[in-house]
Write a structure and sequence with these properties.
Elements lengths: L5 E3 L5 E3 L4 H32 L21 H34 L34 E6 L4 H5 L6 E5 L13 H7 L5 E7 L9 E7 L12 E5 L3
Antiparallel strand pairs: 1-2, 3-4, 3-7, 4-5, 5-6
């Protein structure tokens, strides 16, 4: 039976399973991602309106004599421009909300395995937390020292303190003191990179987590293509 689905109770009544904190966090993140997708589709439609008139956000709508241009629908263009500005601001807010929602998912305790008789269903504090195994492929080589709001790094879900295990094709064996990182980022502008992280515990009761994110380097309102500060990590 799926979580959240009603099931029969006594005397013909129905009951609804309460979602776990992790399920609620995942549902919140998924809803925000759907909202982001809707906004991006709307922005594309609005930009298509401008393109159909052969103008962009900054092209003039008056002729050389200072009169409104007769070859375009000025009302439609002005309306589309105003909506684009508003939707872009909404999209920035959604990106920040998604980053916070994904962080909440990573911090939420794992749901107990219903097939594991040793799992406790009454209290998450009694669950066993195991340390991340020290495997060669999990050796971090860099640390995220800062993340700028509304940046590509923030959109991807990076947070300060993340330990980078893999950044695209780079790992602890081939990053050359992080010298290989800038050219890799530059060569992947507007192309997705897979990043694998070790996320340190954020609370006394949480455990270190292995996180895989997708980061797309791109131009934004700040400096660089990532919007985060990455420094070497030493054990």
């Amino acid at each position: 039976m799926m979580a959240g689905a009603p099931f029969p109770g006594p005397a013909g009544s129905s009951m609804t399973a309460t979602p776990t904190p992790r399920q609620a966090a995942i549902a919140r993140a998924q809803a925000l991602i759907r909202e982001k997708d809707d906004l991006e589709r709307t922005l594309k439609e609005l930009n298509d309106i401008l393109a159909s008139h052969g103008v962009g956000m900054d092209d003039t709508l008056v002729d050389s004599d200072g009169f409104p241009r007769a070859d375009v629908d000025i009302y439609a263009i002005r309306h589309a421009r105003a909506e684009i500005i508003r939707k872009r601001n909404d999209l920035k807010d959604i990106y920040s909300s998604i980053a916070a929602a994904l962080e909440a998912v990573h911090q939420a305790p794992l749901d107990p395995d219903p097939l594991d008789p040793s799992a406790s269903s009454s209290s998450s504090s009694s669950s066993k937390v195991e340390a991340v195994p020290s495997q060669p492929e999990l050796v971090p080589f860099a640390r995220v020292n800062a993340v700028s709001p509304d940046s590509p790094a923030a959109e991807a879900g990076l947070i300060r303190g993340d330990l980078i295990v893999q950044f695209g094709s780079l790992d602890h064996s081939n990053h050359d003191g992080l010298k290989a990182l800038p050219p890799l980022v530059a060569s992947h502008e507007n192309r997705a990179l897979s990043i694998r992280l070790r996320r340190p515990p954020t609370t006394p009761m949480s455990a270190e987590a292995i996180v895989t994110l997708t980061l797309t380097p791109k131009k934004w309102t700040g400096r660089g293509l990532l919007g985060c500060h990455i420094v070497p990590h030493t054990q």
